[in-house]
Amino acid sequence: MSDPISTASFLGLSGALLGVGLFGILTRRNFILLLISIEIAINAAVLNFVYFAAFSSTAASGLNGQAAAVVLVGLAATEIAVGLAIVLALSRLRGSINVAEATSLRL
Amino acid sequence: MSPEGLAFLALGAVAVGTALAALLVRELVHTIIWIATFFVALAGIYFLLEASFLGILQLGVYAGAVTILLLFGIMVTRRRIFSREAATGLSLHSLAIALLVVVLLAAVASDLAGGSNHTTIHSYAVVDLSTTLFGPYGGWLLLLGLVMLSALSGAIYLVREGRE
Amino acid sequence: MFDPYNIFDWAFLVPLLPALAFVFVGLLGPRLKRLEYGGWLAVGFGGAAMALGVTLAAEEMLSPGTYTDQQYTWLSLPGNGSGAFPNGFSLVVGTLVDPISALMLIVVTVVGFLVLLYSIGYMHQDRGLPRYYAELSLFLAAMNGLVLSDNLLEFFLFWELVGVCSYFLIGFYYEKPSAASAAKEAFLVTRVGDILFLLGIFVYFSTYATRGAAGGWAANGFPFVQGNAPYLAGAMGGHSTTLTIAGLLILGGAAGKSAQFPLHVWLPDAMEGPTTVSALIHAATMVAAGVYLLAVASLFLGFTPTDQLAIVAIGGFTSFFAATMALVNPDIKRVIAYSTISQLGYMVLAVGAGFAMVGLYHLFTHAFFKALLFLAAGSVIHAVGTQDLFKMGGLGKPMRITGFAFLVGGLSLSGIFPFAGFWSKDDILSSVYGTLATHPLYWPFFLMALVTVFLTAYYIFRAFFLTFSGSAPRDPGLGHAHEGAWVMTGPLLVLSGLAIVAGLLPFAHGFGSLLPGAGIPPNYGSTDLLLSGASLGLAGLGIGLAYYLWGNGRVFALADSSPAQPVRRLLLRRYYMKDAYDAVGTRGVYGLARGADFVERYMIDGTVHGLERAFAGLSDRLRKIESGVVLDYAAFLVSGLLFLLLFLLVIGPWVASNGGL
What we know:
A: mainly alpha; Helix Hairpins; about 75% helix; C: mainly alpha; two-stranded antiparallel sheet; 22 helices
């Protein structure tokens, strides 16, 4: 196949997803939406690994890219688990999962 | 344009659209539906890129587990699941910053990979991937396992009964 | 070794008894039913010390010229044959009873006892009585210890103790600002002398670590050994400069303690203490210590001719200088205080000229008539409640005993035959006159001393006539004066007797052995007779002038237009020396301190505090960044990403295009 997916278009997709994620991180007040935004951003990064793995010329580097993507997916899943635990704790503690109200990170 | 190119464009558009929709809709349950669709669209792109193991992983972990977890989170933190969020104004500053990041990133990326041209999608056997994962990446996997274990312990500690 | 059958070995009790009184009265005094009981306790201990002291002196008389040294090693470090002290180093304590310390024991214990007794009457209204008696007892203990010291370091310890006790007692009425400042002044001015003395000890220490008697006089603990002075001089092998410097430093110490020019300023101000304290300071303790130091130094350490000239100059000049200031002073106690400085000048003059015994002889007689004058003045002050001579007058009739005592003291001070002062002063004059042939440089100071005889007679009889002559006090508000109780008149009478006969004691059988060389010189010839006649004539002239100007209640007022007015002002302002010291103190030293304070406060502290403020302010700003709001941290995260990208796009290429880092 010749030039099935152009690098520029792919990078555009990845960047757009990262932008959406960042936008969510900066604006959303709901903790769950915040977690989702982070997931979107992480997925944009994972997408890079998969894409460049698919087009890498050697099998070793391609497999390396996919392996890194697997580790990343694992980490992201872990992050979601801990994040949701924090959401639960926060809602119990304050009765709200509004991030703007979580101001006790400071001593 | 090749069928792969068309598929890519379609899946990419769905991904960006569902991601935006997930963040912008005001019912949280609708968000879950949109984000699940987003994960499935990404899995589609992975299949398109011949990374079938990752596609399945994406479907299983994200479209399945993470979505269920998020839904579960919503269920336990609010009395009525289908309540609407208070409207959040579209912050132009944040939008500008996010766009700026994207533009700068694109500039950097084009700077780094501007001349490269990829032609062939390589396909790798899942066996090879597992050999790599448990070979050179064994240490990483072990580390990932430890991180997951400690995250699990932390999560349990955070939500256990009687912790006020 | 301690021999219980040898009375000289019990000498340590003489300082110990008043010290015990200090402890008992100080601790128990305030708890006793009546405050006077503490006073009587101190009198008892003082009496016991006097009995022992006089007995010791009598024993010393019976065995002339003995030096009984009861010495104990306090601290001993072995030597290793090299270093600064090859033979080791030891500190000793002990008591030395020799002729001069026996003589001083009489003065200190007798005058001390009489002052303690007199104080019962004089101080009876004072609430601080236990404190007064405790401090007075400590004062006596320190002075007795000083007199009996058998080495220079022990001497210095008691010397400092005397100084601090005088500080306590001068500042006895510490609520009064003038008394508090007078005490501070006395302490600081004598401290200048103490520092000089200490420096002198250092010089001896460094010079005689390996030289002098027994291969290292200083390393053996600076003992006072008979015949030590030539030993020390010989050990220097002709390098007398060190010895001269040490002698001058010792002179500085003595000048501070004995109020010699230019360190005399504290003594008149020390009149702020109770009059009894003044009597003790001026007669037996504080100021006597300086002269005693000079005498001891001349006997055991030795002075070089340069030192002697300096001592003679200081002594002769001070005697004249202080007498002039006494001429115009309106305060009865200050007049007597200046006379003390003047008489101390005589003693210093005699010691400097090489007649230590003659100087101590005058110290001995002076102690009695000066204590008498002060106690008589105290009696007057106690009766009329003022110290201003121009408010008094006509006190002779109601206070016959006091008047008589003051008259005896005045005659003795003036050197009228046959009172005590005549013999010792005459001895000083004739002794110094005898040295003039070989030391012509002594001439001006001898003449000063001679003129001082006239001045002394004039100013003391001016005070006498102003106080006692006439018919009634010039200030009618003074009230009815009357004589004090027997505890006050008794000591006055005893001291009057002593002031008459003390001068004759060197001629008594055996007593002369305490003062070898003092008294009438063996070759008393026509020159000495002429000198005696001259000094008697000058004294008579002074008394006559005083009677002419102030007698029978007359008050001599100097006309405002008189050319002598500026002189009078100069004398009243004490030659502006105190003002000069104050100016040096406030302008110079205080200015220096202000400068140092400025550097300290604004430059050093300012830097420190400035840095502190800068960092505190910075951290205060930075602290606000830590809002604790999760979203803010997310914003920082994004800002970091932005910065990173900017770096990759802009700064990195820019650095690379400029040749790298």
